[in-house]
């Protein structure tokens, strides 16, 4: 089984059309905010042209004078080379062998701050990957990332990064300096008892700049903002988010709305006051983090990544766009115009264009190779299955290896998930119970087996690391195989059960019912809900009326 190099990863991404990350969601939970002391961070890579795959870069020793190639994640374009360090760490997806995990969301910021020097060679994706290769802690990752852009220049636009290890969670926000080399940035530690998140909007506003333990920033941050005319107040009132980005109705609703709905799940009494910000009715912004009113667990984090604004004013199953089958998806573009006025579709965390996503789980109570897990899924978070992939793995399962966004494959987890999801997009309310049954069974099995598996692995981690690695590789291969095969069966089942607009009868076990003579029972005709029929009459009057007399 081949290992992907950085150049190979970039080439594959380029072949798939580019990793356009302007639509990603990160959610965070500190170790005292969670039920078991885990630190959680989630990430959805939402791109309409991104193939869902798991990457791997092995640990390696490098000779003195070795150079590392830097390739732009979005385009596959070679950007340059930087000196390699003596040793780099094992990286599985977005987590390394020391339980450091990194995610991001792009927000762009002022266009004039994008690099104009032509000399910058560190893009946001390479920044994350290199930091994972070289960092043992979240703080060290921040040092690596900020040192890199200072030395070699920052080749991307405004970004927010989530950075966690087994003890801490941080948000780092960064933007370039236009014609000047490097970037300005600020990093804030999320308190252990808090939850946070970001989704294509910078979120760090007024903080205690004197708190060196929990707040870090570039030495010229405020000076640069003043020089460019982005800020003119007192230093203590400085807001990174407001200095370097504009927050209009579209970004608040489509971006901050995703963070708000996470807060609403775990701190509803507080979140109700921040909906006015999201709905563009108040200029009092949401806080960077909130103390949850209940503990967050793994299943809860996975479920939060499937959020569709259920039970909120933005509930996507309730408005006219949901249609008769209450479909919580809206095709792009997100904004449209009627009679000279701009309107929008909702942008939820769960969305059809996701290439892959994960919930990173890190724990100081276990050896690193066991404590760090990437609960990884491909395609739409709402319908996919999260599979445990450990940070000590050295082989990527067949079903999660690189593929082609334009070439269907039955061996691909991404394509089997797409087959299921795209059937649901047409008849959501009828099909989603069948999906939830299979999805739930698989994830319950994966989660419930962890205590026994991890206890056994923890015992051999120190004395038999090679054996542990092989066990983790074998388990990952079996889990990916099973999840992919079960979704292939599910996709076939959905096609058969709901063909031609009908709904075939099944027993309590989901098996198709046959007559006493072995023939298929006549299917049900589910039709549409009463509200849809009412809408037809309201919009067409008597056009479809069956008259009871000649008029």
Describe this structure as you would to a colleague.
The protein is α+β, with helices and mostly antiparallel strands. It is 31% helix and 19% strand. The protein contains 15 helices and 21 strands. The protein has a seven-stranded antiparallel beta sheet with strand order 16-14-1-2-19-20-21. A five-stranded antiparallel beta sheet has the order 10-11-12-13-15, with helices on one face. Helix 2 crosses helix 3, helix 11 runs parallel beside helix 14 and helix 12 packs antiparallel against helix 14. The N terminus is likely disordered.
Topology overview:
Layout: H1 6-15, E1 25-29, E2 39-46, E3 56-57, E4 60-61, E5 67-71, E6 78-83, E7 87-88, E8 91-92, E9 95-96, E10 101-108, H2 124-134, H3 138-152, E11 158-164, E12 169-177, E13 180-190, E14 195-198, E15 215-217, H4 221-227, H5 240-244, H6 249-266, H7 268-271, H8 275-278, E16 289-290, H9 298-304, E17 335-338, E18 341-344, E19 354-362, H10 368-371, E20 373-378, E21 387-390, H11 413-424, H12 428-448, H13 450-460, H14 465-497, H15 530-540
Antiparallel strand pairs: 1-2, 1-14, 2-19, 3-8, 4-7, 5-6, 8-9, 10-11, 11-12, 12-13, 13-15, 14-16, 17-18, 19-20, 20-21
Helix pairs in contact: 2-3, 11-14, 12-14
